[in-house]
Design goal:
This protein is α/β, with parallel strands linked by helices. Helices cover 34% and strands 23% of the residues. The protein has a domain at 3-26 and 61-85 and 97-104 and 144-389: Glycosidases (TIM Barrel, Alpha-Beta Barrel). The protein contains 14 helices and 16 strands. The chain has an eight-stranded parallel β-barrel with strand order 3-4-5-6-7-8-10-11, surrounded by four helices. The protein has a four-stranded antiparallel beta sheet with strand order 12-2-14-15, with no helix packed on it. Strands 13-1-16 form a three-stranded mixed beta sheet. β5, α7 (155-173) and β6 form a beta-alpha-beta unit. Keywords: Carbohydrate metabolism, Hydrolase, Polysaccharide degradation.
Length: 441
């Protein structure tokens, strides 16, 4: 594995990359706020001291929470939670149908549901999110690859149970869970006309499907979910790999669904580098190529929908290289005007799929922390970006009765002092919300 060859596109394109990153972050992730200082009668007050402290991001930095309360010891569970909270403001809750409802008619909503590794019950995940002011995302509502064995082996029968599942989940969680991956990997799952066999690989559907099932599922979902955002989610190969501008298969599917009236709120672009060390140079030709990455985002941005890098795996064969890759990737993604969230997949090396009949992910060592929860360089890099470089914390002395400040979008605590008077106010600064606020002393 030749690190110089793997990283060559980042380095050869550094001037263009840094220019677009810096311009993009300044114009897309920050804005100007105006603070007006007045007394209780509305009269202006001059000569105040101001402290601006960012409390949270508007942009979503996420990770799956699949290993919540799934470790052998309470110490490990606590370390997992601490490392998660150190970086992320969005948590992905598992809704894989085979483990969510292994027994027909008995969905695993409640915290006391039967324990399944990497599949904490939804109520447990939501409790953690509520306690820590984290947004929840559900994954997925429908994915043929992980369906329960009790489903009927015909499309008409299957539609009945899909509808029932959507209604049950929506009754509890519409608007509570802010977004769901509605359809997962539709352009990757093979639509077979014969009974599948276990040896046929990871991407196999256990039930006959209509070729129009994505449209049908989206429209059924829209019947029950009025508030939660619906995401169309697709694999890395179809999102970034086999890119052919507006003729890309995934682009054509998304465009077709939108034109047919489906409520596709967000376009999900997975970014799993499931790649052996010997193949990393070939992968890097497109996956670690800034020009290619920007072109893909620009193209999918033409659909006039927000984008999400919805699942990320970057191999950790070399800790320092993983950190450098993620440093570049996160800045590229964060800078793009259409991007609304970046979601790493497995927090730790011990959080990935170990091995089942057809698939394993632990061999990629892609975690941001090691098995003992010590931080890899990649964790520290993201911590520096998310919690330091991409936050606004500043102090001002204003001679006027107002102050302009350029800030990252997010929630803030504003502290204003005048003599012995000290006032604190919390504001929510968003791209489409208020940009002018009054502080009454």
């Amino acid at each position: 594995m030749n690190r110089n060859k793997i990283m060559c596109s980042f380095r050869e394109q550094a001037d263009m990359m840094e220019d677009r990153i810096n311009l993009g972050i300044e114009s897309n992730r920050k804005g100007y706020i105006r603070l007006n200082f007045i007394d209780s009668e509305g009269k202006p007050i001059n000569g105040v001291s101001v402290k601006i402290r960012q409390k949270s991001h508007h942009f979503k930095f996420g990770c799956n929470l699949f290993k919540y309360k799934c470790f052998d010891s309470e110490e490990e569970n606590l370390l997992y939670e601490q490392k998660f909270l150190g970086l992320f403001n969005l948590a992905v809750a598992p809704f894989y149908w085979n483990d969510f409802e292994p027994q027909k008619g008995k969905p695993r909503f409640e915290k006391d549901s039967v324990w399944i590794d990497r599949r904490p019950p939804s109520e447990a995940v939501l409790e953690f999110c509520a306690e820590n002011s984290i947004e929840a995302k559900g994954h997925p509502l429908f994915w043929p690859v992980m369906s329960p064995e009790w489903l009927p082996e015909n499309w008409d029968g299957l539609k009945h149970y899909i509808t029932k599942r959507l209604k049950e989940i929506a009754t509890r969680y519409d608007g509570v869970i802010k977004s769901f991956d509605c359809i997962n990997e539709a352009t990757t799952v093979v639509l077979r006309d014969h009974e599948p066999h276990i040896i046929e690989g990871h991407y196999r559907n256990f039930n006959p499907l209509s070729g129009n099932y994505p449209e049908w599922v989206f429209k059924q979902t829209d019947r029950f979910f009025a508030e939660s955002r619906l995401v169309l989610n697709e694999t890395t190969a179809l999102s970034w790999g086999s890119y052919n501008k507006e003729l890309s298969n995934y682009y054509l599917l998304a465009e077709k669904l939108i034109k047919s009236g489906c409520r596709v709120d967000t376009i999900g672009l997975q970014y799993h580098n499931f790649c052996a060390p010997d193949n990393m140079e070939e992968l890097a030709n497109w996956a670690y190529n800034p020009i290619r990455l920007f072109k893909v985002m620009d193209c999918y941005g033409n659909l006039q929908r927000p984008l999400s890098v919805s699942e990320i795996t970057v191999p950790g064969y070399d800790d320092d290289m993983q950190a450098e890759v993620l440093y570049n990737l996160y800045r590229i993604w964060f800078s793009h005007p259409n991007m609304e969230s970046i979601i790493y997949w497995n927090l730790g090396d011990n959080c990935a799929i170990k091995k089942n009949e057809t698939w394993t992910e632990q061999k990629y060592m892609s975690g941001l922390v090691r098995n003992d929860f010590s931080e890899k360089p990649s964790y520290k890099v993201l911590d520096r970006l998310i919690n330091k470089e991409w936050q606004t914390n500043a102090e001002y002395d204003s001679r006027e009765n107002f102050l302009y400040a350029k800030c990252f979008y997010g929630k803030y605590e504003i502290e204003v002092c005048k003599g012995n008077t000290r006032i604190k106010k919390e504001i929510d600064f968003t791209p489409t919300g208020y940009d002018e606020f009054y502080i009454v002393l």
